[in-house]
Design a protein that fits this description.
386 residues; alpha/beta; four-stranded mixed β-sheet; seven-stranded parallel β-sheet; 43% helix
Length: 386
C-alpha cells in the first residue's frame, strides 16, 4: 500500500486507543519492538502493508481527558513504560489535536450527526493528505439494541432518518459515517457496529470493506486453541465455565448488566461450533476496580475420556488487556488499508483471526483462522502487484 494511511479510533482516549497511539509513536521512535504485532510476523513479510511510519492517527471521543493525560495514567498503572509520554510528547499532542467530539444519542437529529462525523473523517483525510482511512471502534461496549424496522434496509433507515428518528445504536452511527466518508470500518468491541442489514447494504453501495467483532485477546483466544484440541483427540467436553475479573474503564462499563450481555453473548458463540456439540459454557464477568487494566480469566473445563473417565483442565490467564489489544488495532488498520487499496467491499471474513465473533464466518479455530488470514494476505499481495 503506497501513500499515507489514516487510522481513526472511536474512543481514542480510552485505554486501548491511547495505548495504540502511544505504541505507534514509540515504535516510530525506535522505543518499541514489534512484539504483539501480527503484521510484523515473519509470515507476513511479503505482504505489501503500509509502513508504520505512514500511519497518521486521530479519533472521536466524548471524554475531556487528553491523550497525554491518559498516557500518564497508563504509565502510573504500569501499562505503558515510564518516560514514554515525555519521549513521544510531540506525537501525542499531534494526535490529540486531531481528536474530534464524538456522538451520543442525546446529541439530537441522528442523520445530521452522522453527516457531521463523516465530515470529520473527510477533513482528517484532506488535512493530512491521506490516501486511505480506516475507522476502528474501540469505545465503550454498548447494550444490545432493541429490534427496529429501520435496521432492515437502507431505504427504511433513510426514511427513519428523514422522519428525524435515531434508529441506530451509537456504534452503528459511526459505521454509517465511516462508509459515507469512504472509509473502511472495524468493530473491536461487541457492539452492533456494521452488523445490520441496512449498514451491510450501505457498505456494499459505497464499496467499503469492514471487519469485526470484538477483539480476541484473552480467554476466547485460548478457547480457540484448546477447544479444537479436545475435538481432535475425540475427548468430550462436558462443561466449560469461565470467570473473568477485570478493572479499568472496560470493567466499569461491563459492570452494567446490559453492556455485559453484549460481551458474554459474543464470548460464548464459538465454543459450540468448535466442539461440534452443545455444551454448558457459562461466562461470568466481575468488575474489580483494583485490577485496573489487568484481567484474570479462570476457566474450568470438565471433560471425559475413554470409558467415560472424568478429568479436568483449569487455566488462569493474567493479561494486560490494552497491551494485548493495541497492536491488533494497528494490525487491523494496516490490513484494512490493504483491503481498501485492493477495492475489497463488504465483510472481510479472513480478518476473523482477530475477533471473538467473526463476521461472515463460522470459523472460530485459531489455526484455521491464521491460515485463512495468510491466504487472504498473499492473494491481496498478488492483487497489489498485478
Ligand atoms: N482490551 C481488550 O483486550 C479488548 C478486547 C476486546 C474488546 N475490547 C473492547 O474495546 C473497547 C475499549 O476498551 P478500553 O479498555 O479502552 O475501554 P475504556 O473505557 O478505557 O475506553 C473507552 C473509550 O470510549 C470512549 N467513548 C464512550 N462513548 C463514546 C462515544 N459515544 N463516542 C466516542 N467515544 C466514546 C470513552 O470516553 C473512553 O475514552 C471496549 O468496548 C472493550 O470491550 C477490548
Amino acid at each position: 500500500v503506497s501513500g499515507r494511511v489514516g487510522l481513526w479510533l472511536v474512543g481514542v482516549r480510552g485505554s486501548v486507543g491511547t495505548t495504540a497511539v502511544a505504541g505507534l509513536a514509540a515504535s516510530r521512535a525506535g522505543m518499541a519492538a514489534a512484539t504483539g504485532l501480527v503484521t510484523e510476523h515473519q509470515a507476513m513479510q511479503d505482504v505489501p502493508l503500509p509502513e508504520l511510519s505512514s500511519i497518521v492517527m486521530g479519533g472521536h471521543d466524548i471524554t475531556t481527558t487528553s491523550l497525554t493525560k491518559r498516557a500518564e495514567q497508563l504509565v502510573a498503572a504500569g501499562v505503558l513504560p515510564a518516560g514514554l509520554p515525555l519521549a513521544c510528547a510531540d506525537e501525542l499532542e499531534a494526535a490529540e489535536s486531531r481528536v474530534r467530539h464524538g456522538y451520543v444519542t442525546e446529541d439530537g437529529d441522528q442523520y445530521s450527526q452522522v453527516l457531521r462525523l463523516a465530515d470529520d473523517l473527510r477533513e482528517f483525510a484532506r488535512q493530512e493528505q491521506l490516501d486511505h482511512v480506516v475507522v476502528i471502534n474501540v469505545s465503550s461496549t454498548e447494550p444490545i439494541p432493541a429490534a427496529n424496522a429501520a435496521h432492515e434496509s437502507l431505504a427504511a433507515l433513510q426514511d427513519a432518518w428523514a422522519r428525524g428518528e435515531a434508529p441506530l445504536p451509537v456504534s452503528s452511527a459511526y459505521a454509517a459515517a465511516a462508509f459515507l466518508a469512504g472509509c473502511a470500518f472495524a468493530d473491536f468491541t461487541p457492539s452492533t457496529g456494521a452488523r445490520l442489514p441496512a449498514l451491510v447494504e450501505l457498505a456494499n453501495r459505497q464499496g467499503m470493506p469492514w471487519a469485526g467483532s470484538d477483539g480476541k485477546t484473552g480467554e476466547t483466544l485460548l478457547k480457540s486453541v484448546l477447544a479444537p484440541m479436545f475435538d481432535m483427540r475425540a475427548l468430550r467436553v462436558r462443561s466449560w465455565a469461565g470467570t473473568n475479573l477485570l478493572g479499568g474503564g472496560d470493567g466499569a462499563t461491563l459492570a452494567d448488566p446490559e453492556a455485559c450481555a453484549s460481551k458474554t453473548t459474543s464470548k460464548v458463540r464459538g465454543l459450540q461450533a468448535m466442539l461440534g456439540h452443545p455444551v454448558d459454557g457459562p461466562v461470568h464477568i466481575d468488575y474489580i476496580p483494583d485490577l485496573g487494566d489487568w484481567k484474570t480469566a479462570w476457566d474450568h473445563i470438565s471433560f471425559e475420556g475413554f470409558l467415560g473417565t472424568r478429568m479436568t483442565l483449569q487455566f488462569t490467564w493474567q493479561g494486560c488487556d490494552s497491551s494485548l489489544a493495541a497492536p491488533l488495532v494497528l494490525d487491523l488498520g494496516r490490513l484494512l488499508a490493504l483491503a481498501l487499496s485492493r477495492g475489497v467491499a463488504g465483510p472481510v471474513s479472513a480478518l476473523g483471526f482477530f475477533f471473538k465473533d467473526p463476521v461472515a464466518s463460522d470459523e472460530h479455530r485459531l489455526v484455521q483462522q491464521w491460515q485463512a488470514l495468510l491466504t487472504w494476505a498473499a492473494e491481496s499481495a498478488d492483487g497489489e502487484r498485478a
